[in-house]
Amino acid sequence: MTISKTPENIQNLFNQIAAGYDFMNNLISFGLHRAVKSRAAELLDIKPHSRILDACCGTGDIAELIKTKEPFAEVTGIDFSESMLSIAKKRINTVNFISGDITATEFPSESFDIVTMAFGLRNIQNAEKALCELHRILKPGGEFLHLDFGKKNIFSRIFDFEAPVLASIFTKYTEPYKYLVKSKEIFPSPDELIKDFEKCGFKLKTRKDFVLGAISAQIMEKI
Ligand SMILES: C[S@@+](CC[C@H](N)C(=O)[O-])C[C@H]1O[C@@H](n2cnc3c(N)ncnc32)[C@H](O)[C@@H]1O
Question: Is residue 2 pLDDT above 70, yes or no?
Fold first, then answer.
């Protein structure tokens, strides 16, 4: 199936699947996504009172992990799906969750010490615009954590197969899960992404692969 990645379509898709999103993530990944997100967050140089933005925060996984790691950090989550955000807000009340499109935010330039984006970029029609915006709102020397699927291997193939099957059994939404598999198929590899990030004014600080590279984290520094 093809879902065109207009902001309206993507918003609708995540509004549709929001109620079952966490359950499905746990099921499809056998709970592994939580461990990977936690280990990726550990790569960040978070200090007490760091100002941190979780972009495309969804139901708040990364924001919650950061807040648990450093309770004094000032954490904001932004997402344009109201249904995903409402789950995040019910889950954590120490994070400031706001509704907005990450390609054009109202944050002043150089507002954040760290920005994170997990499993978000491949859903954004104008990824370059999103990256420029992340770069603008980061302080010089600040860190950008990007986390998403990486290498195609046995684990990613298992995901590709089971995601739509499990979605058809446990939810009413098979098509959105087929889209999510497709979006990952056409997403650039971590090596290509790093080059794209560099073109936007970042330099690579750390890269860490998980599940034999099926998921990859890149920590980029704003130069
Ligand atoms: C696959 S979910 C990832 C959620 C969360 N980061 C996680 O790791 O579980 C992608 C999220 O990106 C959000 N999103 C996609 N495009 C966006 C945009 N342009 N601005 C803000 N949020 C966006 C969607 O609404 C959705 O909640």
Answer: no
